[in-house]
Each structure stands twice: as structure tokens, then as C-alpha cells.
Amino acid sequence: MSTIKDAAQKVMKKAVEAAPDSWIPGGKPDLLARQKHGLIGTPVSRLDGPLKVSGGARFAAEFAMEGMVYAAVAYSTIPKGRIAELDTRAAETAPGVVLVMTYRNAPRMKPAPVFMSADKAAAGDDLPVMQDQEIHWNGQPIAVVLAETQEQADYAKSLIHAAYENEPAATAFKKAKADTSPGMFMGQPLLLEIGDAAGTFAAAPYKVDAVYRTPRHNHNPIELHAATVGWEEGNLIVHDASQCVTHVAWSLAQIFGIEERQVHVTSPYVGGGFGSKTLWQHQILAAAGSKLAGRPVRMVLSREGVYRVVGGRTLTEQRVAIGAQADGRFDALIQTGVVAMGRHNNMPEPFILPARSAYASKSFKLDVETVKLDMLSNTFMRAPGESVGTFALECAIDELAERLGMDPIELRERNEPEKDPTSGTPFSSRNIVEAFRKGAEKFGWSGRQATPGKRRDGEWLIGMGCATATYPYYRMPGGAARLTLTKRADATIEVAAHEMGMGTATTQTLVAAERLGLPMECVRFLYGDSKFPGIVLAGGSQQTASIGAALIAVHHALITELLKLAGKDSPLAGLKPDQVVSRQRSLCVADNPERCESYASILSRAGREEITVEASAPPPFEMMHWSMHSHGAMFCEVRVNAVTGEPRVSRFLGSFDCGHILNPKTAASQFRGGIVMGLGLALMEETQFDERNGRIMNPSLAEYHVPVHMDVPEIEVMWTDIPDPHAPAGARGVGEIGITGVGAAVANAVYNATGKRVRDLPITLDKTL
Question: Would you name the residues annotated as active-site residues?
Fold first, then answer.
């Protein structure tokens, strides 16, 4: 459990424009959003900042449990086969060693329910964990050493000897492409056809047809994956680094054959997740080791261990073919291709998702095929599908614009759809054209030279590129909250949500304070605990919407109960909950603020010190009736050295349309962080996968390159701040939109600088020479 009560700082209320209309999910008007002088839209610093910089924030590997031992993991070195020999005798007799766990002595456990295959499942694959001699990927855990210190565990692990019986393994992508299967994502086929796209494309007078490739990527959050685990009277306690505490609790209960109520998962602070902080083998092994040893276990994966055990983004090979008329309007939009997957998971990279809604076209063919390899299961990584799908789609649009002799922004505007082009559903709110126009003006797009290679500064070639960013609005079912209001007008809100560094706790304290009519310092937002209400996942840029819908529901429940307590003697007598809002520590009639009664008065007259209510958010009906997406316009300037081929991003601007921005300070940080990650995707990130033996060859930050300060220019961000009337508080997600479109904007800028099209990420200097 985590709280910001000790770190909460008083923030001065800042007069802002009247909050726009927003809606309770399902269509009812949210009267609170019409209040003036609200906190929403005010930049607020991170309330957990003081705890983190002072060392008071405890992460998963910083919990101490009595009698705790430390774990080290040994990994397989073949992609497929069986353990023929596993000699642990030297490790078992090494100093400080408590035990060595292998398939021979591990507790009996059921396979984990694979993510998205069962309600609340969180695991990366459905393989049995250390239950037999079978090897399924190069890097699979084969032994766990538990010792009195981490150093003793690490040393003892080095003494383990393993030999294997190899079996034929599929590790080569090109060879595996001979046998593809249809892709499925979130229970839906990754295939969509409207009209005769192939025939229409063939007949189009202007066309582009190219293949784009993106490599594997590995997760590298600053906080290593870790868990501190112990058993207490048959109950499993897990202090985890997790973005899905309730999912992990449920999954661990299934694995160990106990009730979900017997598993308690906390995750107060998470040092980055990006889709990787779900359930992998390390938490299961820690729990099994703790059960076997009868002592709590702390397991922290090494950086190499993260590469061996935690999945990342898989590779893609995409064909984009667009046929258009002379005026630029699309006749056919084709985006098809193949991705690799592990044999035991369900996560194809859904790169066609942006093309479903981004542009109008007379015909479509969108298709993702999959091949199964003997490799670690791949998983979600920031904007799965969109980050790499926009690279191919937006580069192809840039190529088509050149063939048409048209400005790339103008071509995008000419294909702006009036409604969702593949579902026919109206957009809930779409202002990407405005984002493009304002962004282009601020970036100085009019100064771009249409002919590549025309701008030069000494030996540096200078170019500009742009791309559309897009990411869907999601709100998963299961959002719920518990609210306790005291006679002193202090409120505590409990939600099984997560704080991974994006400012969730701060923003939700702000939103809850405004909804309840309280100062921020009177609100405690508690999260990161599986015992709290709700089944909320911090992923898919949907946590803010899920919490927001839960806050609306629990606030409505609070008003309902307070009106009952108020009785007939109250100024609020006879009113229905929908007629009342919270203002200045009171309940007030929405259109008559003078008719009100304070929380203290209502509770005092009822003889109550506090009141607690719990409520669940309604199902996400808004997603059934509207096509809902965050959008952005990405602008990049690069400098490419004509002698060495070195590319450098010199300027970047993101202009976003994400509905109402709840906290500009934390939102701007999210936008910039996504763009920085996009620069890594464009220029440097690549997992080196040895197809001879299925082994990742660069499992460290020394060899796997991510952007550092010298790689990142000043990044400007701006936004429309036009509320989405069909989303809670008018806000759509901001966590993943920032990475989408960045790869294409950089590649298009490189072409404008050099005249060289790079269709194979990352854009390294050898590809620009």
C-alpha cells in the first residue's frame, strides 16, 4: 500500500477557465465538470517527489522481512531440449547457501494462466515453472539459489553445472515464415478487408508499395524486476514491482492452488514498467523458493536476467501499399505483414491498429500473420502495435506525398476521415488537423525544403519530417473505488491502481479533490494494493479513465448516502443525487450554490464520525458507441553528417490532441518521455538475437543502446486541450501516444536531409551513408 499523505504539499488554487462539460460513462452529464475555478488543468508537482528524493519511498526490493534470504537464478543456454545433467552439489555446500531449488525439489505448481486468456490473468506464458526437465527457450530458469546474502547466492549460482539434450528448434524468422498463422489481439482477428483493395491499388494512378522492418526490443526500466515474498500461515505476501496487482494476486492463487484472498500483493512504487511489470517466472520462483525454504525470499533479477526472463517487443515485417488519385485521396490502403511470437503466449504485435482509423480510403486490407519461434514469450511494450505500425504507415505516406509533389501535411489532411473509416462509428472527438496546423506553425514547417539535401550547415545535412501519432482510448471493465469521508472533511480513496512514475497519484488526488470539493491536502489517494477495490491495469493508457470512472461512481454513491443521512431537515431535502454536486466541503444544488449543507453538518446531525462507500464503474459503454483515440502531430528536425553518416535529432515538437489535460505538468512529462523512447526506437534500440541458438547477445545497457542526455534535444510539447465529451473528465490517455509516430518522423526527416529512405529500423549511420 502507498499513500501520499506525508508528502502531500499544499497547492495554491489557481483560477482557470470554466471546466468543460464531461460525461459519466454511459451518457449522463457530469455536473461537477461545469464548476468554475477548479483544480483540474492546474500544473501540480509530483506529491510523491519528496519521498523519492529523500529515500522514503520503498520499492519492491527494499522491503525487509524477518529471516529473509536472497535469490540468484541460473539460466539455460539452449533454445529447446531437456536437462540431461544438473549438478548443484558445489552450490549447495557453498558458504551461506540455504538451498538450491530445481525441477527435482520445487513445489508442485500449476502453469500460469497466460495474459489475456483468462479473467485477471497476468502471466507472460502458460508454461509450468520448474516442474520438469523441458527447456523451451534460451534463458529459461533452471535453478534458484537461496542464500544468506546476495553475494553468496550469486557466487553459488556460478558453481552450478548443466548439460542438455538438444532438440530441433525454430529460431530463424525467415525460415519460419513458410508457416504462418492468423494473428489475434484481445480476442479479435488481426484481419480486416473492405472492398477490393488489391484491385483498386493496381488501378490507382499514384501508388507506393514498400516493405518496412522493425527489430526486437527489450524492456529496460530503471528499476529491475524484483519481488520480496513470504508465506504467513498459508497466506502469500508479495511486495512486487507490478502494474497489475490484482491480476498478479489472482494468477498466483491459481498457480499455488489457494484462494485469491490468501494472496496479498502490494506495489507502492514502480520504477518504470512500459508493459513489462506483469507476472513473469521470477515472482513464481520466489514464492516457490520461500515455500520450500520456509523463509521469506527477496529476488532481484540482474539486468541480464531481465533479458532472459522478461519478454519484450517482437520483430515485424510490414508491407504498406497505398494507391491514390492525383488529388491525393486514397483509393486503397494495404498494410500486411508477419510478426514472430513465442510458442506459449498470445501477444502478436498488432501493427495494423493505426491504419484502422487514421485515414479515409475507398478500400482496405489490413492483416497481421504470426510465426511461432522457440524464444522467450514476447509481450506488451509501450504502444504495442502503434509504435511500429505508425513507422511503416507514416513513412509510406511521406513517400506517396513526394510522388504526388504534395506537402506531407496536406496529403494527410486530404485523407482526414469524417467518421471511423473501417467501423463507421462516429469519432468521440478528433482534432488532429488543428494539432497539425498549430504544431506546423510553431515548428516552422514552412521553412522545410521539399527537395532532399538542399539544407546544409558545413558537413551536416539538415532535414525535416512529420508523422501522425495515434493511440486508442481504452477503459477496461473492473474499475472500482472505496471512499471514506470524515466529519473533518478529510477523504481517503482506495483503488487497486498503480504509480509507475507517471504521476497517477498526484493527478488522481487533484481530480478527487475537485470532485469532492476539498483542498488537495485533505485528500489521500491510496493505491498499489490488491486488497483495495477494482481490477485496474496500468497499461493501454487506460488507467486514468478507469480510475476516473470509478471516482465518478463512488462520488455518486457518497452523495446518495449523504442525502439519506441529511434527512428532511436539510436544505437538500427532496433532492436526487444527480441534482447535487460537491463544493467547498459541502453538498450543493448544482444550479443554486447557496442551497447547501456542509459534510460536517450532515455527519454531525447523523451522529457519524465518518462514512465509507464503495462503488464500481459501469462497463465502458462509450467504447461501443464512439471511435475514441488520442492523436498527435510529430515534427522532427535532424542533422546527418555527410562524411560519417551520423544522424542527430536537433529539434522535436509534439502537438497532441488527447482531450482535456488534467495535470499539464505530469502530462508534459509523459509526452516527452514517450518521444524520448521513440527516439531510441528510431535510432538505436535493437535486440541482437542469435538465430543459430536463440540467445539474446546484448543483454545489458552497455550493449543495448537507449537514448542518453546527449542524444536528446530540447523537446517541445503542446496540446489542443479540447475535452472529449464521452470520456471521464473529458480526458483520454497520454502515456503511450508520445512514442507513436516518432520513428516515422525521424525517418522522414533523414530522407529530407539525405535523400536516402531507411525502411529498416534502427536508423544507424551505416544506413545513411
Answer: 736
